[in-house]
Structures are given as C-alpha cells and as structure tokens.
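Module 6 notes. Inverse folding takes a fixed backbone as the condition and produces residue identities as the prediction. Think of it as a translation problem where the source language is geometry and the target language is the twenty amino acids. Below is one complete input and output pair. Work through it position by position during the lab.
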C-alpha cells in the first residue's frame, strides 16, 4: 500500500514522521509532504503528488478551528464533507454562495448538494472518531457576521481549515481514496492566542494519525478502502 500523508506545514505531522523513521513497514510506502498553507498551494501540490506517485490513499492531517461548542480544543475529528466557506458575496446583508448566484450547479461533479463529500469514510470506522462537516477558507474567519452565518446554516459545519476542500476536490476528481483528519487548536473567531492550544492539538492529531498508519501497516492484507 502506498500512502501519502500531507499537511500544510511540516510541524503538524512531525511527531508521526519521527515515529516511523527507521521502522519496518514491510511492503508499504508511507511518505510525508508539506503542501503549503491555503487552498491554492494545497490544490497544486496535492495534484502534483497524486499524479507523480499514484497513491492508494492520501491522508491530510492538520489543525483546525472549531465552530461547534461540542467540539473542544484538543478534539480530533474526521471530515465527512467540505464547503469552500468564503467563495461568494455578501449581498443585501445575506451571504450568497456561487451556487446561490447560479454560477455553478450544486450537483455538478464533484459536488453533491454543494458539498465535497468523502465517499470513503466507512473504511475508517475503526478509528472511532467523530465525523463532521467542515468549511475551508482563504481568510481566517473573524467577522462575526460570517461566523454567525455558518453557525446557523444547515447543515452546520463543525470546523474550519484553510486546506481541506483542496484535498476533497482533487481526490474526487482524480478518483483517489482520501481521508482528512483534523485536531482543534482554537475556537473560530477567538484571536486571544492564550486561549489557543496548538501543542495539544498537534499531540492529539499525531496520536490518532500514528494509530491509523499502524493499523494500515498491520492489516493491509485484510484492509482495503471501500469504493463508493
């Protein structure tokens, strides 16, 4: 099994990289890559890596902000579906997406009702982690109007990152199995960094990432990503 682990920054997955360096992986190949921060950089780099390596699975791991009071700092989640959260316009005090503006169809591939859904999630139920919907943004959300919009939308996203939708769209288009794992470092809109805990988020993220990779290594003869 050939697995690519991608993260916006090397620091987010450094503990997992250190854990596996020098460890026996049998016939498996696990490589770690930094894509850069943001949707554009991540889209380009994930596409390049996918085409050059033809992986069996791409795992994106990183930290995120929480939009849901039930998802606390330090919690780790799997992302079931993504929305690009700031692609649209405020018009007459209402946020309108590209779908609302009829610039794109919410069911045109790879979208399903405007969502970039992950059809491979059932393969990873053994992790026993909550699955949530997420938004990806180019600008970290600090505007209360935008935060309130997403908190009151249906379905309601639980977390926010700056790269998740890139993974989902690239992999759906290239038909490559994928998984997005995130750990919460802060509440969305909270700019007091004393209330952030990036260290805790990275620690919890890597505990679950190591668990996932070790399971894949041990059980690949029985494990296969279930096709949608």
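Target side of the pair, the amino acids:
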């Amino acid at each position: 099994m050939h697995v690519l682990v991608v993260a916006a920054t090397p620091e987010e997955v450094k503990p997992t990289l250190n854990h596996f360096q020098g460890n026996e992986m049998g016939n498996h190949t696990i490589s770690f890559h930094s894509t850069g921060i943001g949707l554009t950089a991540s889209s380009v780099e994930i596409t390049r890596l996918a085409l050059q390596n033809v992986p069996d699975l791409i795992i994106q791991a990183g930290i995120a902000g929480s939009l849901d009071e039930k998802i606390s700092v330090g919690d780790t989640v799997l992302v079931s579906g993504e929305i690009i959260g700031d692609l649209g316009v405020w018009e007459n005090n209402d946020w309108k997406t590209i779908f609302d503006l009829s610039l794109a169809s919410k069911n045109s591939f790879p979208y399903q009702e405007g969502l970039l859904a992950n059809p491979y999630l059932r393969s990873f139920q053994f992790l026993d982690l909550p699955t949530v919907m997420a938004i990806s943004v180019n600008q970290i959300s600090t505007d209360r109007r935008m935060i309130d919009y997403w908190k009151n939308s249906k379905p309601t996203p639980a977390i926010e990152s700056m790269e998740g939708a890139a993974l989902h769209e690239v992999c759906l288009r290239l038909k490559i199995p994928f998984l997005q794992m995130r750990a919460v470092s802060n509440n969305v809109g909270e700019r007091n960094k004393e209330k952030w805990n990036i260290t805790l988020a990275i620690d919890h993220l890597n505990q679950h990432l190591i668990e996932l990779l070790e399971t894949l290594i041990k059980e690949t003869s029985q494990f296969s990503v279930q096709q949608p």
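Reference fact for the lab report: The domain at 2-219 is CATH 3.40.50.1580 (Rossmann fold).
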